[in-house]
Inverse folding.
């Protein structure tokens, strides 16, 4: 290796040059400009426009509107459907985050062991994740059919007539009934990521632990889990975002019903903007969703930044 | 710095500036503005028609449009969003219009579904074209009223749909029901006989609210009678009264006695409505389109099925009905050609070739040999007026609030008296607004 030394006799850099070097000068900005332009035009500009519309009473169709300032946000606090939707969002996020994650991890551990037909099993578990969501909604809609659906037919066949329910047709079961296919389709993704991460763990650590007399549980807890930390971050972050922005599954399976029992913030925002001609109010809901999503993702971003800088 | 570096940076900088300018121009680019109605200078010979025809009729419409193109020298694209119903189609249309490149012509329901497009001046005022083509004298005046908003003729109606009961004769026979009921009591009696024969009587579904709504509005007509029913829909009379409580009580009874499918609230209408043809339900409440969409599609003879006006025990005996028509985009550069297309479509011979079973023009009545049941409704409609279907009488938000009440009643979470009070709250808030 050849060391290059700058001769001491060279003139010391001027203050402006130092600043340019510290900030990287203009060049990085020029390189970033095309991407930044796209980002500003397609993300920042619509976001700022939405923020503005949330302060108006625009109906979403007319060329004119009045500025109502924070009236829409005040109305949000009095809207019983918003409260119900927020509650449903919380339940949805908790369940569809934890259950697929745990199931995915369990399946990954099983498939990482000595199981026959691993590729086939992997394919079976991951297939729901690649199916079109509307198809999944239709398939489960038929399965849930109170009269002819496979679930109720099965329950009646095995003598559990009392458990047969109009699953999607009553407030008490509708949300849970939509969560089941959501879990079914979302388990494959964490499974795949965990499986990849598990295959990257050095087997010598397990051998050493076995020699030291560690139990299977201790090995899992002190070797597997810490080694999966980067995978946990990715799975958690992506699942959280996915859960929070739920819309399509609810829209396709129950349309927010019966009544408003399965409304979530996304579907209620959609109803207001696109169906009730209350774009100003609906946009205010969208702003609230965005703010909450940002607040939730900040810890993840900070942790990632710290990890990278360390 | 070498000359190679400079040229690369210049290139990157230049391309970035170009991208930024292009983006900004896209943001600030103004769309063409329309004044609504009146003549327009054609900017091209291209038209786009947006509709919600399904597979059974879309080819007929495309063939019709092709004929028009051949004689008018236009090129018309027909886009369809089938099976979506009034719950989804208007959203898609609205998004297209806001996107700045909406269709030149679109199909839409009348009443409160079409109204926002007229009020927002997205739909052109068709009065000049009504005068030019003489539509006032050829198109059913009641139907035109259904697409006239604040005095502006915003649409050209081509369907005045009538809804009644459509039934499977063999299932009626199997249950010992001799024929169509002529009173509400007879209908209830028929329902009991069907249930006893292990047949679900009335195939309605509530996933989007509007299908099962047809049952409640029929019960409301039966309990309240024509005059009060109309006043309830317009908010002139309070919903918090015995006739409405009675209608909600009957509605709950239909579910409790298993006269509608189990868990109807969660079912999709498109799965349930054809059930009378498939032998799953004895009858359904729908319009004449079911003859082409369900009966003809099944290849079963029309004689296996029948249709009747649901008995209300009132005079006049009314049925549920609604209007559908076409609107022209106020911002279209080809409004004149679009109006010519509508004039071509509304001609009786075209309406016949389109198999429109509920046309608003005389001379386009359904062919008795091909569509005998739809032809029967053409006869019924001559003496039976219609009440406006509930989701065209109310704006979407109020209709959805009604659907929530309907859902609460069927789940037993509120009493009929509470439902009537809730409805009064919903309607009075809308009327005050």
């Amino acid at each position: 290796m050849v060391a290059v030394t700058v001769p001491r006799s060279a003139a010391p850099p001027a203050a402006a040059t130092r600043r340019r070097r510290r900030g990287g000068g203009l060049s990085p900005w020029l390189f970033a400009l095309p991407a930044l332009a796209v980002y500003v035009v397609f993300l920042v500009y619509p976001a700022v426009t939405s923020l503005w519309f949330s302060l108006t009473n625009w109906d979403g169709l007319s060329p004119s509107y009045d500025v109502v300032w924070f009236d829409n946000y005040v109305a949000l606090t009095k809207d019983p459907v918003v409260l119900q939707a927020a509650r449903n969002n919380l339940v949805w996020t908790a369940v569809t985050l934890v259950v697929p994650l745990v199931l995915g991890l369990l399946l990954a551990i099983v498939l990482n062991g000595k199981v026959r037909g691993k590729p086939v099993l992997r394919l079976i578990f991951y297939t729901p994740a690649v199916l079109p969501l509307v198809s999944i909604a239709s398939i489960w809609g038929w399965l849930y059919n109170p009269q002819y659906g496979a679930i109720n037919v099965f329950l009646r066949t095995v003598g559990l007539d009392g458990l047969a329910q109009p699953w999607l047709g009553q407030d008490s079961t509708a949300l849970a009934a939509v969560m089941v296919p959501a879990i079914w389709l979302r388990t494959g993704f964490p499974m795949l990521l965990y499986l990849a991460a598990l295959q990257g763990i050095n087997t010598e650590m397990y051998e050493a632990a076995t020699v030291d007399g560690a139990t299977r549980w201790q090995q899992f807890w002190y070797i597997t889990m810490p080694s999966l930390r980067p995978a946990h971050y990715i799975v958690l972050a992506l699942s959280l975002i996915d859960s929070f922005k739920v819309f399509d599954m609810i829209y396709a399976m129950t349309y927010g019903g019966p009544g408003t029992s399965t409304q979530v913030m996304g579907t209620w925002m959609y109803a207001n903007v696109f169906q009730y001609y209350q774009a100003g109010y609906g946009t205010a809901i969208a702003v609230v969703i965005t703010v909450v999503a940002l607040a939730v993702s900040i810890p993840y971003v900070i942790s990632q930044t710290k990890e990278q800088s360390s | 710095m070498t000359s190679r570096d400079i040229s690369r940076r210049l290139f990157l900088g230049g391309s970035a500036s170009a991208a930024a300018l292009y983006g900004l121009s896209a943001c600030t680019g103004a769309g063409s503005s329309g004044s609504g109605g009146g003549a327009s200078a054609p900017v091209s010979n291209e038209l786009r028609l947006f509709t919600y025809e399904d597979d059974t009729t879309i080819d007929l419409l495309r063939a019709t449009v092709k004929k028009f193109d051949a004689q008018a020298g236009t090129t018309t694209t027909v886009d369809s969003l089938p099976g979506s119903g009034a719950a989804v189609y208007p959203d898609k249309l609205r998004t297209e219009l806001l996107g700045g490149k909406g269709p030149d012509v679109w199909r839409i329901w009348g009443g409160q579904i079409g109204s926002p497009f007229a009020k927002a001046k997205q739909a052109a005022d068709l009065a000049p074209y009504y005068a030019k083509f003489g539509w006032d004298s050829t198109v059913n005046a009641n139907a035109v009223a259904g697409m006239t908003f604040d005095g502006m003729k915003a649409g050209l109606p081509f369907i005045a749909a009538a809804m009644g009961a459509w039934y499977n004769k063999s299932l009626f026979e199997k249950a010992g029901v001799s024929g169509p009921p002529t009173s509400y009591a007879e209908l209830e009696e028929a329902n009991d006989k069907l249930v006893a024969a292990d047949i679900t009587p009335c195939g309605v579904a509530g996933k989007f609210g509007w299908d099962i709504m047809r049952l409640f509005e029929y019960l409301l007509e039966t309990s309240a009678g024509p005059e009060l029913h109309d006043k309830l829909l317009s908010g002139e009379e309070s919903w918090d009264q015995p006739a409405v409580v009675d209608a909600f009580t009957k509605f709950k009874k239909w579910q409790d006695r298993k006269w509608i499918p189990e868990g109807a609230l969660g079912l999709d209408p498109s799965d349930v409505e054809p059930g009378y043809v498939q032998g799953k339900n004895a009858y359904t409440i729908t319009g004449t389109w079911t003859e082409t969409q369900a009966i003809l599609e099944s290849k079963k003879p029309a004689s296996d099925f029948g249709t009747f006006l649901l008995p209300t025990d009132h005079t006049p005996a009314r049925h549920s009905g609604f209007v559908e028509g076409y609107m022209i985009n106020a911002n279209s550069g080809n409004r004149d050609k679009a109006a010519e297309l509508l004039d071509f479509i509304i001609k009786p011979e075209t309406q016949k070739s389109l198999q429109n079973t509920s046309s608003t023009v005389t001379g386009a009545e359904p062919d008795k040999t091909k569509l005998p049941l739809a032809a029967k409704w053409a006869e019924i409609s001559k003496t039976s007026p219609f009440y406006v279907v509930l989701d065209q009488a109310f704006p979407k938000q109020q209709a959805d609030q009604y659907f929530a009440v309907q859902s609460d009643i069927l789940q037993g979470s509120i009493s009929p008296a509470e439902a009537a009070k809730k409805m009064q709250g919903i309607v009075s808030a809308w009327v005050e607004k």
Summary: The longest strand of chain B covers residues 156-168. Confidence is low (pLDDT under 50) at residues 1-39 of chain B. Residues 91 and 263 of chain B are 27 Å apart (CA to CA).
